[in-house]
Alpha/beta hydrolase (Limnobacter litoralis), 251 residues
Amino acid sequence: MTTRAHDVIVFAHGWGYDPSFFNPLIEALQREHADWFNQCLVVALDQGYFSKSGEGALKVWEQSAWVPHPAETLHGLVMGHSDAHWAGVGHSLGFAHLLAYAIKWRKLVSVAGFTHFCSQGDLPGTAPRVLQRMVTQLKTDPAGVLTAFQQRAGYLPMHTPTLPSTLNAHHPLLQDLESMLTLNCADTLTKLLNQGVQVLAIEQPGDPIVEHTMAGRLHRLTVTNAPHSELARNPSRYTQALVDFLKQDAS
């Protein structure tokens, strides 16, 4: 972590997963684009959904695995790599998480991401009552709700996380789900676009989880016949587009 990098890539997972969601993608990038990818500093935001402490963390990819560090380590990385090209890749809710960080982004990638989830006024989205029902069920049957969601999203991790039988009000899995009822970070995205940040939105028509697309001056790529979590199931459909976008205009 002390080695300075020209490119820093920050991965942010969506609701119901952890950084291991990106393992198939990272392994594919290491195989197919090793000369570039192995020179990058690769980190991930872990929301702490499955940690014993319930706290988030920063994880750094070292050769073939994620190595955990305290969440506040990110500040030191930002300061120590202030001249690097910072790029974020967010899946689903992970894209909104990236927007919340005061990082001088050069590029951002949304994979099935959103700036709002529920319908709000004229904004399309999931009906709030649907998500509220899921919130209520999550409190008393977290394992059942999580498994049902992952099945609908199209990707079940190899290792099933252990969850308590009930969730308290401060559990990050519950807090993040509740936050999606009122989430709206469209203004933040617009501000970044006005500052010159390039954003690639990878959209998946027919996605059963996210049914609307983001607005704005975005680069867009459509991946057809893809479930919500296709990125983890079939990363080869995304690797070339990601590399082309992230490396473009690199000096």
Remarks:
- The mean pLDDT is 94.
